[in-house]
């Protein structure tokens, strides 16, 4: 238990709650000492009096304020203790405000407030529950270290935490920061938005948020203490930069994963798409494709009309632009219905590409321009015929799996930086639909015709990396085969009507995401232990360390209350002690988390999207507690 820093009381109206202030944080920094390099002797500071020109002992020193003219005004400890401050021994609550109203720049280090004895426990808990129910934080005034301060009281777990607050005049005006005049392009902002979405996390847990520098320092010190060679940086085990045949690599990895599970069957080749039929133009232009300019003038006139509940555009286009992507709605059943085709669902970034007169457009689903971030796609566009456009998914294949995390750093890289990443972790464009072919708009064609033309495009032009043709099938056995490819990162199945047109922004496709029932260990909760809101889950690794693996969605009300009797606060050193969890992207507010004894096994539903370490990328859905299982029954982390 941390040592007491300060004893006082919370003053709340006519109520006074005796409390002890404890530090809420720990500093694990490696502390170095100054040494004499010739003999490793410690070098110490000495205090020297300028008036008497001699060294003085600590007991001879006091405090003084230096005036501009050089004179010094002494101030004694007794005078400081006697300052006429009503808050000298009390934390006086003066206001209650929403947490979002506090500028994060003003928030200082955190402390825990502990009630002093049984008498103080009840008013302490009353204040804690009132703050939680009101969704407010308290602003306080108190004196500490020789000055009066503002403080912020908030609920964290089952206790009240105190943060120091800077006074308003202690925050510099941001207008003093020099900003060179620049012009922003909307596409650049859209790129940043896409990057934010790709890098959004639920919390601040995981190996990328650990202090690797301090760990490396400890390793060097321990090695030198034992007269060993300090550890060197490991050589990379992967062989980046190698362009591969995507489908061949995919099937090889699936085979290896099956062999590791003891299965002997080999995945069959995906069924070939429907036989190509010659492209036909409709006599009527009633369903012209929905060409959009995204706010840019494209020299055309358009009128909106409807037919049979479908909206379309009748357009006379001078220039062709990429349409908005067609979308899919989720379905709970992976059954392949008559009149439908199926395709694998990839764990990557949705993108549309267009090539015309040497100009390449690579656009994300949200409209961001990705060309500068993926130079390998631009250079590979020379394989495509002019005036052609594809819909597909950008993916990176690494170490025998789809590596979504290798895409995350792409949008902020251009020029040499993007070229370096393209060489190290090259991206593929998995094409699953044809939007335009040699100047002919194909979005009005039925899927079976677009699919046949897409396959013919790959065959006729002998397209190779970075282009990959997405498989398509009308065979239920092949769909079941693909559903077993989750080990290499496929997320599920997308279903498309064989006679369906490509309808921009319309959810006319269907998608099924593979979900698995998994066991994990509850390591922490948000909300009170009596009715937790979410669980933070973990699994032990091969070294016996409990690693964070994911977080649940909000628990049903009944499930939260039922769990209360199965959870207990951590009574010993918890493996997650000192970890912090962010309440969301772009905010400095931390998630209120209560560590619990990691002995309850729970069952959750998760999809197959994982990061490189094996953590679930999406929240887990609550199923049920499993008190009948021990933590030894839970699979190892990353397994």
The proportion of strand residues reads: 25-35%
Q: What is the CATH topology descriptor of the largest domain?
A: D-amino Acid Aminotransferase, Chain A, domain 1
Q: What is the overall number of helices?
A: 10
> Spatial order of the strands in the main sheet?
1-2-10-13-12-11-9
Helical amount among residues, as a percent range? 10-25%
Distance between the termini: 36 Å
Mean pLDDT: 79
Q: Architecture of the largest domain, CATH level 2? A: 2-Layer Sandwich
Main structural class: alpha+beta
Strand tally is 31
Radius of gyration from the alpha-carbon trace, in angstroms: 32 Å
The largest sheet is: 7 strands, mixed, barrel
Low-confidence residue ranges: 236-243, 265-318
What is the 3D form? elongated
Number of domains: 3
What is the assigned CATH homologous superfamily of the largest domain? Answer: DNA ligase/mRNA capping enzyme
CATH class category name of the largest domain: Alpha Beta
Outline the structure in words.
This protein has a seven-stranded mixed barrel. Strands 18, 19, 20, 21, 22, 23 and 24 form a seven-stranded mixed beta sheet that branches. The chain has ten helices and 31 strands.
């Amino acid at each position: 238990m941390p040592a007491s820093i300060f004893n006082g009381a919370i003053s709340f109206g006519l109520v006074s709650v005796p409390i002890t202030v404890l530090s809420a944080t720990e500093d694990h920094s490696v502390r170095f000492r100054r040494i004499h390099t010739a003999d490793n002797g410690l070098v110490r500071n000495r205090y020297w009096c300028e008036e008497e020109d001699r060294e003085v002992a600590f007991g001879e020193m006091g405090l003084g304020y230096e005036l501009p003219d050089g004179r010094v005004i002494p101030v004694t400890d007794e005078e400081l203790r006697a300052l006429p401050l009503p808050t000298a021994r009390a934390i006086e609550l003066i206001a209650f405000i929403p947490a979002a109203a506090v500028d994060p720049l003003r928030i200082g280090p955190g402390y825990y407030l502990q009630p002093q004895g049984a008498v103080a426990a009840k008013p302490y808990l009353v204040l804690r529950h009132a703050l939680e129910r009101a969704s407010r934080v308290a602003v306080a005034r108190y004196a500490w270290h020789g000055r009066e301060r503002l403080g912020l009281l908030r609920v964290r777990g089952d206790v009240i935490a105190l943060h120091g607050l800077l006074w308003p005049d202690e925050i510099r005006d941001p207008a003093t920061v020099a900003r060179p005049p620049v012009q922003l392009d909307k596409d650049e902002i859209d790129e940043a938005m896409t990057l934010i979405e790709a890098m959004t996390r639920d919390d601040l847990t995981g190996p990328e948020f650990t202090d690797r520098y301090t760990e490396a320092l400890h390793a060097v010190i321990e090695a030198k203490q034992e007269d060993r060679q300090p550890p060197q940086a490991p050589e990379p085990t992967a062989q980046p930069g190698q362009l591969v045949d995507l489908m061949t690599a995919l099937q090889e990895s699936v085979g290896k994963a099956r062999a590791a599970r003891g299965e002997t069957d080999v995945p069959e080749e995906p069924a070939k798409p429907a036989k190509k039929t010659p492209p036909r133009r409709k006599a009527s232009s009633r369903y012209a494709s929905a060409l959009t300019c995204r706010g840019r003038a494209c020299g055309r006139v358009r009128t909106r009309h409807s037919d049979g509940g479908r909206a379309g555009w009748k357009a006379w286009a001078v220039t062709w632009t990429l349409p908005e992507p067609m979308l899919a709605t989720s379905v709970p059943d992976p059954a392949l219905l008559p009149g439908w085709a199926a395709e694998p669902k990839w764990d990557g970034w949705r993108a549309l590409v267009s090539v015309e007169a040497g100009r390449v457009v690579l656009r994300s689903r949200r409209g961001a321009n990705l060309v500068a971030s993926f130079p390998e796609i631009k250079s590979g566009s020379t394989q495509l015929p002019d005036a052609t456009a594809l819909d597909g998914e950008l993916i990176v294949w690494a170490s025998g799996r789809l590596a979504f995390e290798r895409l995350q750093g792409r949008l902020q890289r251009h020029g040499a930086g993007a070229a370096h990443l393209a060489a190290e972790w090259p991206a593929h464009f998995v094409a699953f639909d044809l939007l335009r072919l040699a100047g002919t708009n194909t979005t009005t064609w039925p899927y079976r015709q677009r699919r046949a033309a897409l396959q013919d495009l790959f065959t006729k032009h002998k397209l190779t990396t970075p282009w990959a043709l997405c498989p398509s099938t009308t065979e239920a056995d092949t769909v079941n085969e693909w559903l077993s490819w989750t080990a290499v990162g496929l997320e599920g199945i997308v279903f498309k009507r064989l006679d369906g047109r490509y309808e921009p922004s319309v959810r006319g496709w269907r998608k099924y995401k593979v979900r698995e029932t998994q066991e994990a260990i509850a390591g922490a909760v948000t909300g009170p232990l009596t009715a937790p809101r979410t669980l933070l889950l973990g699994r032990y690794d091969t070294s016996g360390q409990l690693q964070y693996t994911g977080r649940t969605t909000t628990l049903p009300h009944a499930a939260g209350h039922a769990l209360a009797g199965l959870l207990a606060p951590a009574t010993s050193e918890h493996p997650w002690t000192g970890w912090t969890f962010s309440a969301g992207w772009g905010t400095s507010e931390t998630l209120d988390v209560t560590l619990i004894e990691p002995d309850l096994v729970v069952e959750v539903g998760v999809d197959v999207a994982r990061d490189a370490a094996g953590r679930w990328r999406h929240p887990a859905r609550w199923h049920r507690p499993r008190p009948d299982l021990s933590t030894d029954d839970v699979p190892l982390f990353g397994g």
